[in-house]
Write a structure and sequence with these properties.
By secondary structure, this protein is mainly alpha-helical. It contains 6 helices and 2 strands. The chain has one domain. The longest helix is centred in the C-terminal third of the chain and has 26 residues.
């Protein structure tokens, strides 16, 4: 990714698809980054949802009796519905998409060395030695 802030870095490996018309492949692919990012956010929210908060601890019920109900909004729903969360997630998704677009454009320049790659995949040194 374009690392403008020096705060993050993700890496993908670029390779040739077997059929030239299929272009290049990326491992992991953009969809995998987006999927893992979504999973990470969900896991973080799930852990936070499961952590017992002081206000929920039974020893404090005598002090807050009647002020808090179990039917109130939970942490995960509060976070997922917040404008800031939605905006930041959108910004990160856009950053991943724009960085992959740059990677895809840069990878096109590798197409001119596909012949070298294919030669390397099929070359047999033993066969070469036997012809001389």
């Amino acid at each position: 990714m374009q690392n403008t802030s020096k705060k993050y870095s993700i890496t993908t490996v670029v390779g040739f698809e077997p059929a030239p018309e299929d272009g290049m492949n990326f491992t992991p692919a953009k969809s995998e980054f987006v999927s893992q990012f979504d999973k990470l956010l969900n896991d973080m929210q799930q852990v936070t949802e499961e952590v017992v908060r002081v206000i929920s601890h039974q020893d404090f019920h005598q002090y807050i009796h009647g002020l808090i109900t179990d039917s109130g909004p939970r942490f995960k729903s509060i976070v997922e519905e917040s404008y800031d969360n939605k905006q930041i997630k959108k910004d990160i998704d856009e950053k991943i998409a724009s960085d992959f677009q740059l990677i895809e454009q840069s990878a096109k320049s590798c197409e001119n060395v596909r012949d070298v790659y294919e030669f390397d995949q099929t070359f047999s040194f033993e066969d070469f030695k036997s012809t001389n």
